[in-house]
């Protein structure tokens, strides 16, 4: 008879799923739920957009696309330049919070190219973070600092958006109710909630230094003064971005900018939630639904021009700048490699 007691039983091997910590399993489950919700939102938006576009007359759309005046296009370009200029301040604030001394020309290049690329390709944490690391790493900025910078810049965007949304929903609750088919008190309640969020956040960061943990690493949040700058710059950027589309809309819509900016923010938020590149399809469907009382061809023509001004042209410029930046670095490296060593003794 074999002696079973002399050989202790080895515990069965745990599968990778069983070995996960409960919190990790829960976070993975939520990640899958979020991904599924994004896919459903994106698919539903494409269906809505398809039904709307299928009813559009192509000839009328061409006429609407080419009907924009030079004044409208000029204003759209101006607001696009203003928006991307304010976006460079996102990085400047984040660099100041991280106590990093980077020349503004480098900051402007990293900010403009990262946003122009991420707005078009989507997945901003990955695409914007990669472009930023490409430009900031030669200045000695570590990957963790680049990730922190990207998160702080994102906080600036959402704080500014919350402030503008609160202002619009509270001030123009009645006009928005007729556009998005909600009650006035619902709009005011959401606006009040956004305002309370901004005020509570400002009080929270002003009492003492605050930090958050993201995926195991610690990030210290800006204090009151920098957070106030974040809110104002973010609000200015959101208004400038909304202004690009607003000036391209056909005349006679009788929409105030305060009313339109709330519709714009909802469209942007749904586009972000869908994880579609640049919110493509979701953004357009939301705008077309909110402005369904107006002729679709001119509105869709304005949306196409908006995509061209705010997304495509900056994206092309960003690629050209990144290409020129890389060529310059290659030439500089080649010159340094061929430069004679000062300690080298010349041959007689």
TrEMBL record:
Residues 1-21 are annotated as: Disordered. This is UPF0104 family protein. The chain crosses the membrane at residues 30-53, 73-95, 107-126, 146-170, 182-207, 227-249, 261-283, 303-325. Signal peptide: none annotated. The lineage of its organism: Bacteria, Pseudomonadati, Pseudomonadota, Alphaproteobacteria, Hyphomicrobiales. It is a multi-pass membrane protein. Keywords: Cell membrane, Membrane, Transmembrane, Transmembrane helix. It holds the Pfam family LPG_synthase_TM. InterPro entries: L-PG_synthase/AglD. It is found in: Cell membrane. It comes from the Bacteria.
């Amino acid at each position: 008879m074999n002696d079973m007691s002399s050989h202790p039983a080895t515990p069965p091997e745990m599968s990778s799923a069983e070995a996960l910590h409960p919190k990790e399993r829960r976070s993975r489950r939520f990640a899958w739920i979020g991904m599924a919700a994004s896919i459903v939102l994106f698919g539903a938006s494409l269906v809505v957009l398809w039904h709307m576009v299928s009813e559009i007359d192509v000839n009328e759309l061409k006429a609407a696309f080419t009907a924009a005046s030079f004044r409208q296009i000029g204003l759209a370009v101006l607001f696009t330049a203003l928006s991307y200029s304010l976006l460079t301040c996102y990085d400047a604030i984040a660099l100041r919070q991280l106590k990093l001394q980077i020349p503004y020309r480098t900051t402007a290049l990293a900010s403009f190219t990262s946003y122009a690329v991420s707005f078009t390709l989507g997945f901003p944490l990955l695409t914007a973070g990669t472009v930023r690391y490409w430009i900031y790493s030669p200045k000695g900025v570590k990957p963790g600092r680049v990730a922190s910078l990207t998160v702080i810049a994102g906080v600036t965007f959402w704080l500014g958006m919350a402030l503008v949304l609160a202002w619009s929903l509270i001030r123009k609750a009645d006009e928005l109710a007729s556009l998005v088919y909600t009650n006035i008190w619902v709009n005011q309640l959401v606006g009040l909630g956004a305002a309370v969020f901004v005020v509570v956040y400002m009080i929270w960061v002003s009492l003492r230094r605050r930090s958050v943990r993201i995926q195991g690493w610690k990030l210290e949040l800006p204090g009151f003064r920098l957070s106030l700058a974040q809110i104002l710059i973010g609000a200015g950027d959101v208004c400038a971005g909304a202004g690009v589309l607003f000036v391209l809309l056909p005349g006679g819509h009788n929409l105030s900018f305060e009313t339109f900016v709330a519709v714009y923010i909802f469209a942007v938020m749904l586009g972000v939630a869908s994880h579609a590149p640049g919110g493509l399809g979701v953004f357009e469907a939301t705008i077309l639904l909110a402005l369904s009382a107006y002729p679709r061809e001119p509105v869709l023509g304005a949306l196409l021009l908006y995509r061209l001004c705010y997304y495509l042209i900056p994206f092309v410029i960003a690629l050209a700048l990144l290409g020129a930046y890389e060529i310059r670095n290659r030439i500089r490296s080649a010159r340094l490699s061929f430069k004679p060593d000062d300690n080298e003794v010349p041959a007689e």
